[in-house]
C-alpha cells in the first residue's frame, strides 16, 4: 500500500465552548482541511478537575468533544499557527502517521 | 510495564458506505484481528466538502464512522494489502505505538 | 506554536467491566491526570471474538469504551506502573505526541 506522511491532530474541547463550532467552520471554510471528524465523549474531566458525564443531566451540555483531522505536515503547521490564539494551552495534540494513497 | 510494538490503524468512512459493515465482518471473520472498535462521529466532512452532522436529520444516516484496530506491524501490513482495493485513498491512517503485555 | 512532548494513552475496555468506573475515578482522584476523555464505541470485538454492537439490544450494556488521556512521559510511566495489575494484557496502547503550550 503506497503511503505518505501526515500529521494527526486532536483538539480537546467541550460542547459548551463556542470555540467548537467556530473551529469546525473555520477548518472547513478557510483552512480547507482534507477531512475532519468530531467525536463526543461520554465522560471526562479537564484541568479544572470537574467531571463531565452524560449520566449527570445538568452537565449534559458540557460533554467533552474531540475535533480530529489529518493533513500534510506543512499544512498542519500553518493551520495550527493560525489557530494558536483561539485554543488554550494543553488542548491540541499532534503526532506523525501515514495515510494510504490508494 | 512490559510492552511490544503495534501498528494502530484508523479507517475513516461514513455510515452510509456499505464498506463499513463488510469491512468489520472481514476484519473479524477472515483477518482475525485482535480487537476492533467502531466509533461514530457527531459531525464531520470529507473530501467532498459536504458537512455531515447529527443535528441535520436528513443526513443522519451518513455520519462519519472510524474503524480502529491495532496489531503486530507485519500482520497489519498484510491486512492493509488485502484491503487496498476496497478502501479509497486518504482514508486509512496508521502509526506506531506500544501495547502492554501485562 | 510552542510544543512539549507527551505520551498519549488509550485503554480499551467494555462498559460492563467494573474496571471502567474505578479506573476513571482513580485517574481523577489519585493520579491527577491533566485530562481524561471516555469514548463509547458503537460496535467492536475483542479477544473473545464476540461482537459487541449497539444494534443488538441484549448486548447494549457491553459496548466498547476507550479511556484516553495524555500527560508527560515520566508521569504516564508511573501511572501505568500503578495500573499494571488492574488492566489485562493487550488493552493499553501508548504513543509519543506533542501538545501545544500556548
Layout: helices, strands, pairs:
The structure is a homotrimer of 102-residue chains.
Chain A: E1 3-14, H1 19-29, E2 36-40, E3 43-45, E4 51-53, E5 64-71, H2 73-83, E6 92-100
Antiparallel strand pairs in A: 1-5, 1-6, 2-5, 3-4
3D architecture notes:
- The structure is a homotrimer of 102-residue chains.
- By secondary structure, chain A is an alpha+beta fold.
- The first copy, chain A, is built from 2 helices and 6 strands, in the order βαββββαβ.
- Chain A has one domain (3-100): Alpha-Beta Plaits (2-Layer Sandwich), CATH 3.30.70.120.
- Helix content of chain A is 22%, strand content 39%.
- In chain A, the strands form 2 sheets. In chain A, strands 2-5-1-6 form a 4-stranded antiparallel beta sheet.
- In chain A, a hairpin with a 5-residue loop joins strand 3 and strand 4 (51-53).
- Chains in contact: A-B, A-C, B-C.
- At the B-C interface, strand 1, strand 2 and strand 6 of B face strand 3, helix 2 and strand 6 of C.
- Strand 6 of chain A pairs antiparallel with strand 6 of chain B.
- Chains A, B, C: Belongs to the UPF0166 family.
- Chains A, B, C: InterPro entries: N-reg_PII-like_a/b, N-reg_PII/ATP_PRibTrfase_C, UPF0166.
Amino acid at each position: 500500500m503506497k503511503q505518505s506522511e501526515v500529521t494527526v491532530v486532536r483538539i480537546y474541547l467541550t460542547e459548551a465552548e463556542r470555540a467548537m463550532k467556530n473551529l469546525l467552520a473555520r477548518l472547513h471554510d478557510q483552512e480547507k482541511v482534507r477531512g475532519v471528524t468530531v467525536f463526543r465523549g461520554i465522560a471526562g474531566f479537564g484541568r479544572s478537575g470537574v467531571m463531565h458525564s452524560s449520566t449527570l443531566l445538568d452537565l449534559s451540555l458540557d460533554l467533552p468533544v474531540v475535533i480530529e483531522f489529518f493533513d500534510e505536515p506543512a499544512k498542519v503547521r500553518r493551520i495550527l499557527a493560525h489557530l494558536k490564539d483561539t485554543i488554550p494551552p494543553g488542548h491540541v495534540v499532534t503526532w506523525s502517521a501515514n495515510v494510504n494513497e490508494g
